[in-house]
Amino acid sequence: QVQLVESGGGAVQPGRSLRLSCVASGFAFKNYDMHWARQAPGKGLEWVAFMSFDGSKEYYIDSVKGRFTISRDNSQNTLFLQMNSLRSEDTAVYYCATIYSYGMDLWGQGTMVTVSS
Amino acid sequence: DIQMTQSPSSLSASVGDRVTITCRASQGIRNDLGWYQQKPGKAPKRLIYAASSLQSGVPSRFSGSGSGTEFTLTITSLQPEDFATYYCLHYNDFPWTFGQGTNVELK
Hints:
The complex is a heterodimer of chains A (117) and B (107).
Chain A: E1 3-7, E2 10-12, E3 18-25, E4 34-39, E5 45-51, E6 58-60, E7 68-73, E8 78-83, E9 92-99, E10 105-107, E11 111-115
Parallel strand pairs in A: 2-11
Antiparallel strand pairs in A: 1-3, 3-8, 4-5, 4-9, 5-6, 7-8, 9-10, 9-11
Chain B: E1 4-7, E2 10-13, E3 19-25, E4 33-38, E5 45-49, E6 53-54, E7 62-67, E8 70-75, E9 85-90, E10 97-98, E11 102-106
Parallel strand pairs in B: 2-11
Antiparallel strand pairs in B: 1-3, 3-8, 4-5, 4-9, 5-6, 7-8, 9-10, 9-11
């Protein structure tokens, strides 16, 4: 069925790195722009990063610029988020999603990242 | 960056009530706005796209209105399954931003 499944979350110390993955199935992943969003415990949703369908464009929220990198492998139907120099304020559930105003709006179930010493 | 100010942050209502939630953009965003419902432990679910279009499969008691800087989500006749947190999301330009959320709880 049409779905997104995130993985790669876990507990990590401040300053360390983590790479999240999001595997798409049931639709033509290579044709879809993709996003990462996050939600800190008990807090609201925050958009984090975007990558165009062909990987030619990427955008980030200011607080992760220079630390996080979004990428994709269309041959493997997979979206990635490389997170370096992690901070306690990066602790959140991370969602991958494809969001089109007049089309698909599909979210994964989320993966938890905890940054703590 | 475009900021989204959502109000109220929480509200108490009863089954059958009419509920209105507002989002205000810091600059004009045409109709580039969606409304989402989120329940605890679940991913957000879109209710409204392009400010006023109902997402397929969403009950007609949900409606959206507005354009430019002022947007409204209305739930007519609140149902038990509607107690949740609601967010607006603008996608006019990057970075996209969500409103702060409105928690709709049982009175």
